[in-house]
Every structure is written in structure tokens, then in C-alpha cells.
């Protein structure tokens, strides 16, 4: 939190950046429209980081959203923690290095640990990626840092913090506070409401920035542009053309000694109900009236209100075990982590089928899958389209897909059928591929926290989560009362051989439920009955083996209320 300039929107679209770059470089003579377009694109692609930052500074300073003369104090609560060390301090350094913070900005760390700025520097600097040429600038950055030790439930500690802030800023009383909160926002409905009510008693809603860092990722932000800036997608983005939507989050590592923290939340609250749910909203929402923060978030809330309650038959939970044939950490299961409570039933994998009950999406399954200790690191949105009516190619055609890969290697690609080259007259699957690493080779994509923290300074809330004004329990449509316990025997080995294969293969949702991935359960299309528990995708595109129905000794009893 900290004092900041008045709220406003940040305008940094490619057209304004391109126009500014063109003005800076000047134009020599007349050019044809085609040549002009090619040159402008080449200029944008060839811009160095310094040039891009300079252009962005110009954009910031032209509006009312960013006042260089105002004093800004950025307070990091929990400054000794892992998130501050690996993300918050490095992000503030990158913004400071590139001149994207107001000139009169101070950073104050606050935590229970008795530390100094030197201690903070020693912990966080390895993550700064600073070059030798940047050392003088780095010294300037840490000169604007300070640290206050104190308790979180002690009024005297906060009085010391307030005195320290007053020493940094002797101007008029600050009235432009912003509070930035990372997820998760409470453990359940009751704790979430308590937290929200308490924060709301201290700050207005336009001062509260609830961070889900996935909303700062390049391809997640690109979802709105793809949908609403391209006419070709408008007529087909609906239940008449889309058979299902699959949202996937996979990590190839386990808890790595942090199981005690993870066990408090589980994979559903850690990933599914925030990262995947926010991406679902961007895929499913209607076109907002504008890119204004309230307009965008209003449409997201409408989507959440249309999600029907999750049925127990549409949920699969699991917990990974060690792979005896693996190496190192892969030989250890979740319960082998010494920080995990003995006999914990916390899920490390979850697959859920949701339905958005409105005119656009009625009957279309949204399949959300996330888990740890899987075969690869990947996050993506996959839209699978319906079969072509009146097939004339003897069922040789596969369904079209639009894939937005969030990480790694950001990309947008379409899987489509083309004629097999040569003398043949038969279709084969190919791709129209926009991989950012190839198309934008010289463009450095900012870290998600860079975008979001800069948005806090600029007063833009478009990429932040708003408190949902909805009667549904928790920001997630689980039924209440909670599911009854049920046995699943949902174990899978780390790096199971059944994970090997094309990571791009997927569960096919054709009318006949034809398998399109080895060992994967089937899903029916929305024109047929919704899938039962046995048919829910339990790993899908060769992500994890299908959840087995066989029980093992001491098989835990899974119930979803453990993780909400």
C-alpha cells in the first residue's frame, strides 16, 4: 500500500506506441500503405527495451494517471517472505531501473523478522538479474529502501511504521491510499467475508487491488484482444460452434518442501478458483462496453453468476505419489514431504466440469484441470470446435481447435485440416502458428507482477479481482452443504510413463466419444448427456494417467470441503 497519484487508465496499446515511435524517429518522404505498415511493424519489433520504456514513460506522463511530483510510498507487508524476495522486490527494481516509477518513490519493508536493508538486499538481489552496467542504478534503488520490524497485531508497531512514513514524506496528509492483496482471499466463505468487510472498512473499493498474478500474463491479457478485436471470432464464439473449452494448468514439480503451506489451501484454492476461473471469465464473458475497469469486471461477474453449481459426479481429485523409477525429488510423494501433515487428504490434482448457463454457452462443458508433479509445465486455453456438418472425407477430419498457450513459450495457434501435399487428395491436420518467440524475437515480455504493480501506481483496476456482489457462496460455485466423502483411489506416479506422448493431444468430445488420447476417459459433446463421474476428464491431453478406480491400502477419503 502507499500514497499515489489520482486514478486513471494506462494507455499503452500497440497503435499509440507505434505512433509515438514514428513521431520520435520522423518520417522521410511518402510511402505506400503496404510499405508503411511493414515499416511500422518492423519498427515496433525492433524497439529495444530502453526505447520501449521511453515510449511508455511518454504515454504515462501525458495523462492524469501518473504524477511525477507526488510522493509515493510502497509498503511491503511480509517483506521477509518468499514472495517479496522472489517477486515484489525484483519487480520494483525492474520498474525503477526502467524509469517507470515516479521519481519520488520510497519502498518500506515491514515484517516480524529483525532485518536490515542489507539483509533484504542479500536475499532478493540474486533475483534482480542486474548487469554490471546497472550497478550505479541499483545503488540508487536500495538508497530508497528502508525496513521496519514489527508485529501484525500490535498497535505500537504500526505507530512506529506511521512515524517512519511521516519522516519520508512531510507534505499534506495523504488521502490517496491503495491496498494490494495477493490471493488467496481467505480460507472459506466466512473468512473471505471477514477479510473483505474489514478491508472495506478501511479502504474504498477503488483503492483495493486484489492481485491474481495470472491476470498480468501476456497471453491472459491477450484473450480480450483476440476475442473483441478480430471480427472472425465474433460469429463462432458460441455454443453453436464450440464443443468444449479446456483450461489447463500443469506443473512438473511437487511441493518441494513447502507442503505445509500448500496443505492449507490445496490445488483448488491455490490454482483452480483463481487462475483458471479468471481465464474462464475472459473466455466466456460478453463484450464489455469499454476497456474501463468497471465495465470489464462487470462482465466477469455476470459469467460467475451464470455458472451452475458443481455436481460431485463432475469432479475428480487426486494426490501424487512417488515414482520408484524416478530420480531425486520425483521419488517422493506428497505425503513424503516432511512439512505435510501425516495422512493429509489435500488434493494436488483436480479436474472439474463447469457449465455456464446462458444463451451463448448453454450445454458447453468448461473443463478445468490443474495439478502438481505432472509431466510438463504448461498453462493453456483450448477451444475445440464442433464437427463439420455433412462430412465428405470418410471421417478423416479432426476437429478444429484454437489454442492460447499462456506458458511456457507464449503462442496462439489454430489446428485445422489442409490437403496433404503432393499427389494425394486427402486431408491432414496442420497448424496456423503465432509463437511469440518467433514472431517477436526482439521484444522482451514483462513479468506479470511488473504489469500489475505498474497498474497500481497508475490507478488501473482492469486486471484485478473485484469483490463479487453475488449471493453464491465463495467466489466459486461449489454446492453448499459440501460434498459427502467418497473414495476415488486417485493416485498417480510422478512422471508416469502414460504421460509420455504428444503433450498437445487431447480428449476428443465427439458425438461418439471416440478416444483421441491414449488411456484417457471420454467426454460427450454438449448435444448429449453430461458426463458422469467415470467420464470426467482426469488429466485429459496426456497430462496425467486416467484416475484409477482401484483402491489402495489406506486410500484417503476425498471430500471437496477440505480444500475450500
UniProtKB/TrEMBL annotation:
Q: Where is this region: Disordered?
A: 1-41, 494-548
Q: Please name the Gene3D superfamilies in this protein's record.
A: Dihydrodipicolinate Reductase, domain 2 (3.30.360.10), NAD(P)-binding Rossmann-like Domain (3.40.50.720)
Q: What does this protein do?
A: Catalyzes the rate-limiting step of the oxidative pentose-phosphate pathway, which represents a route for the dissimilation of carbohydrates besides glycolysis.
Q: Please give the PROSITE patterns that the UniProt record associates with this protein.
A: G6P_DEHYDROGENASE
Query: What are the Glucose-6-phosphate dehydrogenase C-terminal domain coordinates in residue numbering?
Result: 224-476
Q: In the UniProt record, does the keyword NADP occur?
A: yes
Entry EC number(s):
1.1.1.49
The UniProt keyword set, sorted, is:
Carbohydrate metabolism, Glucose metabolism, NADP, Oxidoreductase
Question: What Gene Ontology molecular-function terms does this entry list?
Answer: glucose-6-phosphate dehydrogenase activity; NADP binding
Q: Show where the Glucose-6-phosphate dehydrogenase NAD-binding domain sits.
A: 75-170, 183-222
Species assigned in the record: Sus scrofa
- Gene Ontology BP term (one): glucose metabolic process
Q: What's the protein name?
A: Glucose-6-phosphate 1-dehydrogenase
Low complexity bias located where? Answer: 27-37
Q: Which family does it belong to?
A: Belongs to the glucose-6-phosphate dehydrogenase family.
Q: What class of enzyme is it?
A: oxidoreductase
Look up keyword NADP and say if it applies.
yes
Pathway in which the depicted protein is active: Carbohydrate degradation; pentose phosphate pathway; D-ribulose 5-phosphate from D-glucose 6-phosphate (oxidative stage): step 1/3
Amino acid at each position: 500500500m502507499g500514497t499515489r497519484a489520482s486514478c486513471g487508465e494506462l494507455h499503452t496499446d500497440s497503435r499509440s506506441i507505434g505512433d509515438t515511435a514514428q513521431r520520435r524517429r520522423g518520417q522521410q518522404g511518402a510511402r505506400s500503405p503496404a510499405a508503411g505498415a511493414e515499416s511500422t511493424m518492423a519498427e515496433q519489433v525492433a524497439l529495444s527495451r530502453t526505447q520501449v520504456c521511453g515510449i511508455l514513460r511518454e504515454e504515462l506522463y501525458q495523462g492524469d494517471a501518473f504524477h511525477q511530483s507526488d510522493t509515493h510510498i510502497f509498503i511491503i507487508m511480509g517483506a521477509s517472505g518468499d514472495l517479496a524476495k522472489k517477486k515484489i522486490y525484483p519487480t520494483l527494481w525492474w520498474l525503477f531501473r526502467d524509469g517507470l516509477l515516479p521519481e519520488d518513490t520510497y519502498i518500506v519493508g515491514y515484517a516480524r523478522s529483525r532485518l536490515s536493508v542489507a539483509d533484504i538486499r542479500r536475499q532478493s538481489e540474486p533475483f534482480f538479474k542486474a548487469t554490471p552496467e546497472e550497478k550505479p542504478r541499483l545503488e540508487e534503488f536500495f538508497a530508497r529502501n528502508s525496513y521496519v520490524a514489527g508485529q501484525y497485531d500490535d498497535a505500537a508497531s504500526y505507530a512506529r511504521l506511521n512515524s517512519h512514513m511521516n519522516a519520508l514524506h512531510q507534505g499534506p496528509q495523504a488521502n490517496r491510499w491503495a491496498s494490494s492483496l495477493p490471493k488467496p482471499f481467505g480460507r472459506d466463505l466466512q473468512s473471505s467475508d471477514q477479510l473483505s468487510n474489514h478491508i472495506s472498512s478501511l479502504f474504498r473499493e477503488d483503492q483495493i487491488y486484489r492481485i491474481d498474478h495470472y491476470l498480468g500474463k501476456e497471453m491472459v491479457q491477450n484473450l480480450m484482444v483476440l476475442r473483441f478485436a478480430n471480427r472472425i471470432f465474433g460469429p463462432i464464439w458460441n455454443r453453436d460452434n464450440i464443443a468444449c473449452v479446456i483450461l489447463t494448468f500443469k506443473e512438473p514439480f511437487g511441493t518441494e518442501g513447502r507442503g505445509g503451506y500448500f496443505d492449507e489451501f490445496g490445488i483448488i484454492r491455490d490454482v483452480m478458483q483463481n487462475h483458471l476461473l479468471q481465464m474462464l471469465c475472459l473466455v466466456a464473458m460478453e463484450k464489455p462496453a469499454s476497456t474501463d475497469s468497471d465495465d470489464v469486471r462487470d462482465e466477469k461477474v455476470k459469467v460467475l453468476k451464470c455458472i451452475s453449481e458443481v455436481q460431485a459426479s463432475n469432479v475428480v481429485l487426486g494426490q501424487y505419489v512417488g515414482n520408484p523409477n524416478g530420480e531425486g525429488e520425483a521419488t517422493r510423494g506428497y505425503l513424503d514431504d516432511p512439512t505435510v501433515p501425516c495422512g493429509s487428504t489435500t488434493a494436488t490434482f483436480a479436474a472439474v466440469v463447469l457449465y455456464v448457463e446462458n444463451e451463448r454457452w448453454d450445454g458447453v462443458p468448461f473443463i478445468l484441470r490443474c495439478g502438481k508433479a505432472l509431466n510438463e509445465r504448461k498453462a493453456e486455453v483450448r477451444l475445440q470446435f464442433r464437427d463439420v456438418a455433412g462430412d465428405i472425407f470418410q471421417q478423416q477430419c479432426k476437429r478444429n481447435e484454437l489454442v492460447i498457450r499462456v506458458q511456457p513459450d507464449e503462442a496462439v495457434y489454430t489446428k485445422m485440416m489442409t490437403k496433404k501435399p503432393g499427389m494425394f487428395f486427402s486431408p491432414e491436420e496442420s497448424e496456423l502458428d503465432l509463437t511469440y518467440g518467433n514472431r517477436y524475437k526482439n521484444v522482451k515480455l514483462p513479468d506479470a507482477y511488473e504489469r500489475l504493480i505498474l497498474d497500481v501506481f497508475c490507478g488501473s483496476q482492469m486486471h484485478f479481482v473485484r469483490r463479487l456482489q453475488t449471493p453464491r457462496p465463495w467466489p466459486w460455485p461449489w454446492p453448499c452443504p459440501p460434498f459427502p466423502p467418497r473414495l476415488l483411489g486417485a493416485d498417480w506416479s510422478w512422471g508416469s510413463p502414460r504421460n509420455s506422448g504428444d503433450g498437445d493431444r487431447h480428449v476428443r468430445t465427439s458425438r461418439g466419444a471416440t478416444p483421441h488420447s491414449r488411456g484417457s476417459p471420454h467426454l460427450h459433446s454438449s448435444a448429449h448427456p453430461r458426463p458422469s463421474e467415470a467420464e470426467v476428464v482426469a488429466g485429459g491431453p496426456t497430462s496425467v494417467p486416467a484416475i484409477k478406480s482401484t483402491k489402495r491400502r489406506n486410500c484417503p477419503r476425498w471430500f471437496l470441503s477440505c480444500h475450500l
